[in-house]
Specification:
The protein is mainly β. It has one helix at about 100-105, and strands at about 10-15, 40-45, 55-60, 65-70, 75-80, 95-100, 110-120, 120-125, 140-145, 155, 160-165, 165-170, 180-185. The protein has a six-stranded antiparallel beta barrel with strand order 4-5-8-7-6-9. Strand 11 (about 160-165) and strand 12 form a beta hairpin. It is globular and about 60 Å long. About 30% of the residues are buried.
Length: about 190
């Protein structure tokens, strides 16, 4: 099982664009609907979770991550909370608690929703945690990564699932592993 490659695949598309008679109007159901260029990152979270496998996504290549320094109750201390309102952790957003040890072992991290960002503190809703919130359980280099999906999404096959702004993904039947990922560039214009 360790050497057999996973065979699950993902397809991505911008929502189908209906024919339009007015070339100056962008229909609500048009393909990619953002003026921003994005690099979507879709990753398998836990292929063996109870029930269906789960996945998560980010609109910025899952690039924002900070060192996890400490925990005090529902407060997680991090090295940085971000650069601005668009790049970093946000109130109501979801994060994954992980580490180099867990990633190298192919283990999923703990997903949890952030209630409030204050200074270098993330106040989290501990009732939403999918696993441990104890930094000692994570091994070397504990870290927290920002995600744009609303936690772990159940993996279903056979139909396109919306991410945002007209971007859709479809999983094929097959085997998946924690950390399997796909990158989807989206360009305006």
């Amino acid at each position: 099982a360790l050497v057999t490659p996973p065979d699950g695949m993902l397809a991505a598309q911008a929502r189908n664009v209906p024919p339009s008679t007015n070339l100056c109007a962008l229909p609500e159901s048009a393909g990619y609907q953002s003026l921003d260029h994005r690099h979507y990152f879709v990753e398998i979270h836990d292929p063996s979770s109870p029930g269906p496998a789960t996945w998560k996504w980010s609109r910025d290549n899952a690039a924002f991550v900070a060192r996890w320094l400490a925990r005090n109750g529902n407060e997680l201390t991090v090295s940085t909370t971000g650069f601005d309102a668009h790049i970093g952790f946000r109130n109501g957003g979801w994060v994954e608690l992980t580490s180099d040890t867990r990633e190298l072992a192919g283990l999923p991290g703990t997903l949890v929703r952030v209630d409030r960002v204050a200074g270098d503190i993330l106040e989290v809703d501990t009732t939403t945690a999918t696993g441990s919130l104890n930094p000692a359980d994570f091994g070397n280099n504990p870290k927290i990564r920002a995600w744009d999906s609303a936690g772990a999404v159940n993996l279903t096959t056979g139909s396109f699932l919306p991410l945002e702004n007209g971007v859709e993904v479809e999983f094929s039947p097959g085997d998946y592993r924690t950390g399997d990922y796909w990158m989807i560039p989206a360009r305006s214009g």
